[in-house]
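As the next step, I selected for study a record pairing a protein sequence with its backbone structure tokens, which the following lines show:
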Amino acid sequence: MKFLYQLQYQALNSIFRPVTLSILCSVFSVGASAEGLVEDTTATLNLRNFYHNRNFVDPTYPQGMAAEWAQSFILDLRSGFTTGTVGFGMDVLGLYALKLDGGRGTSGTQLFPVHDDGKAPDDFGRLGVALKARFSKTELKIGEWVSLLPILRTDDGRALPQTFRGAQITSKEIEHFTFYTGQFWGNSPRNDASMDKMFMSGKPGATADRFNFAGTEYLFNDKATQVGLWYAQLEDIYHQEYFNVVHSQALGGWKLGANIGLFLGDEDGAAKAGQMDNKTATLMLSAQTGPSTFYVGLQRVDGDTGWMRVNGAAGGSLANDTFISSYDFAGERSWQIRHDYNFAALGIPGLTMMNRYLSGDNVHVGLLSNGKEWGRESELAYVIQSGPLKDLSIKWRNSSLRRNFSNFDIDENRVILNYPIKLL
């Protein structure tokens, strides 16, 4: 897999070099037109109101309850590209969160940072800017943005989304294939306004300022099947390969789906966070008929290390990633059953409900070799379909988590309102 990464990196670098040279020439060219830059620009302001209440059930936990309430403003501006052989553009992501409630003693939901005195600030935010250039079907992006890569997924589960700073090339020069390569240098988690070095989740003592990656996705079978091959390296901490197959198939009155993934991880270079060994297999099966969709999730973590991710990143590539846990501890075996229902079938378009139950065992933590955890989660959501508040969504999430290997037993409620306002 390392050879594949190096080969792909060199191939895309051969594309990157002429793009870079074209950029340098075109920057000083007076013939570049801004026509496409303006015409294709989009801008959305999302007003997000987030209330999070977490009750710590275990009396030995040092805090009885965490409760915070935030009003966020998320500006997402994406320009088009200038006309010409090489097109230029710019994306801007403005993030600001205002504290409506939550003080000393009730902080800790990760809606806000927590200062040394235990208090959350009255507000926080940052401004991310990314410059981009497009040559043929290849795009170069440099700056700060939300990452959606399967080996580095932004966590957007709180008031503000996580962002990363780096450079990425995405190429679709070959039909049915998409190639990715790049490097990230900094990480701003969902509850932090700073841009810091990265570390592996659970091992904050060793930091890195380079996250290198390369990946290929092949879409075929009339877009019903996708195969992905990925390589990730958190420099001198860990490297990871990821193999993924996604398939959907109609069968009678059913639509069946499968998402299969395999992660292979090991320590990297100087191994600043110690020796590592991880193999994580994940499978999500789905079956949809009428308004109902049924899911079964299976997940197995092997090796002495839990699933590898950059601090703060989401676990969305795992079948059993949920609101509270990803069931990705060393040695853990977990399963999930889930049901989604769309109330449009009953004459209420926009109303949906999700219920799921998860169970994991064989968790290896410290001296414990058979830790267990289970979780139950529900989400009731409604999206307004018309009128002045069209697209306003309201979500209520209710969750419980129990473990026998820590005192992190919780019951929680989240109420989330998102109101996207299209500016351009």
Remarks:
- Confidence is low (pLDDT under 50) at residues 3-9, 11-31.
- Residues 281 and 338 are 19 Å apart (CA to CA).
- The helical segments are 2-27, 35-39.
